[in-house]
Design a protein that fits this description.
Distance between the termini: 46 Å
Number of strands: 0
Number of helices: 17
Largest sheet: none
Structural class: mainly alpha
Helix content: over 70%
Strand content: under 5%
């Protein structure tokens, strides 16, 4: 049976992103754990947070330059950006301060390019009627990255003192090998798409006058039947770009992305609150596994749920869930738990360990729904919305990635 090239390419791209995201996010978490004992490593324990900041800042630049790389075949862009993850892992293997910092910066460039280029690629290879389906499958497969990362953390950094030199060498060597494998998977696994009538929107003019001009011939009789229509003077590139950024569709996407990025930051704060409030050290790893599992489940059933309820209803459901999630956090954690050790009995509504598991489920649902709304809206808008007339799909994903990193 012949393989559907479109589905195959989307599947390969999703596996590439899953491998890179799982190893990169886990790598920075393990770096912080490896540097927890400064007397053992001889380096500042806060170096990991500095590297994370450098990585996030530099990824802005990678997201900015990604749309300009469309002249290069996507498989080569994904291959090169995958290899840029390797220097960071090598720096951690040798535990060299300069190598870790410079590797974080290089990885930030690769990560910024990767997130824009790979979503741009999925949109390009998808027919309009299959776009939502392909995006849903792509996000579903890549969502396993979070669960995989949490499982790696559970078995390796349950306690920072368990990050031995041999563990660090083994894990980060595997991470480097996975990054190289992901690069070659993109280079050799992505197949050339067959000719399709569903061409890129940027090459198709939508103005009726242009369509009239395209339908005319050079014969004088045809010119009489179809008189030439004077076209309005095209706007400058800067003017069109400003119109694109200020359009309601782009502003709505930016707003959704800001909410999604804030929720992502809140999850990190939430882990700190759990650590400072509850004495059970197994809570955070289990919380992460529940969060990752719920994310995979929601991504798997999202396409069916959204087709039954509609996106407007899903927006309302997501908003209500986010508000409920924030309310539970404010009620079950003492105010000082963000900074210092606290007693769970000092919370407005003292709850037991079971509340953390429930919170992991709600966190996974609310975060995933919000992320999916932003990502799928971005993909659909980049392919079909009139605001993208004359622009490549990667531009919209670049805007989203820059807002997220900020």
């Amino acid at each position: 049976m012949a393989v559907n090239v479109e589905v195959w390419n989307v599947g390969v791209a999703s596996v590439v992103l899953m491998l890179l995201y799982a190893t990169c996010s886990t790598g920075f978490t393990m770096l912080n754990a490896s540097l927890a004992d400064s007397s053992k490593t001889g380096m500042d324990s806060k170096l990991g947070y500095l590297c994370s900041s450098i990585y996030s800042f530099v990824s802005l630049g990678g997201s900015f330059i990604a749309p300009f790389l469309i002249v290069i075949p996507a498989k080569f862009v994904l291959f090169c950006s995958s290899l840029l993850y390797v220097p960071f892992y090598i720096g951690v293997i040798f535990l060299d301060k300069i190598a870790i910092i410079s590797g974080s910066a290089v990885t930030g460039v690769g990560d910024g390019v990767m997130w824009v280029a790979i979503y741009d690629y999925v949109v390009r290879v998808s027919r309009k009627e299959n776009l939502v389906r392909n995006m849903s499958y792509f996000i579903f497969v890549s969502s396993f990255a979070g669960l995989l990362g949490y499982l790696i953390n559970y078995f390796n950094i349950e306690d920072p003192t368990k990050i031995t030199d041999s563990t660090r060498l083994r894990i980060f060597s595997i991470f480097a090998a996975i990054a190289i494998f992901a690069g070659f998977l993109a280079l050799l696994g992505l197949k050339e798409m067959p000719p399709s009538d569903d061409c890129d929107r940027s090459s198709v003019a939508s103005d009726s006058a242009v369509q009239t001009l395209l339908s005319t011939n050079s014969d004088e009789e045809n010119e009489e039947e179809h008189p030439v229509v004077d076209l309005p003077r095209p706007q400058s590139k800067l003017g069109r770009l400003l119109k694109f950024i200020l359009s309601p569709a782009t502003l709505a996407l930016i707003t959704t992305t800001i909410v999604a990025s804030i929720c992502f930051c809140w999850v990190e704060i939430l882990c700190t609150c759990i650590r400072n409030t509850f004495s059970n050290r197994h809570l955070i790893p289990i919380f992460g596994i529940i969060l990752g599992s719920s994310k995979v489940i929601i991504c798997g059933i999202w396409n069916k749920i959204s087709s039954l309820l509609g996106y407007k209803v899903m927006i309302y459901v997501t908003s209500i869930t986010l508000l409920s999630w924030l309310t539970i956090i404010l009620l079950m954690f003492p105010p000082l738990s963000v900074h210092d050790k606290s007693d769970a009995s000092d919370a407005l509504v003292p709850l037991g360990d079971w509340a953390v598991f429930l919170l992991g489920l709600i966190t996974g649902f609310s975060r995933t729904c919000n992320d999916l709304l932003a990502q799928l809206s971005c993909g659909t808008c980049s392919k079909t919305h009139k605001v993208m007339q004359g622009f490549q799909p990667g531009l919209l994903f670049s805007v989203r990635a820059i807002v997220w990193s900020s």
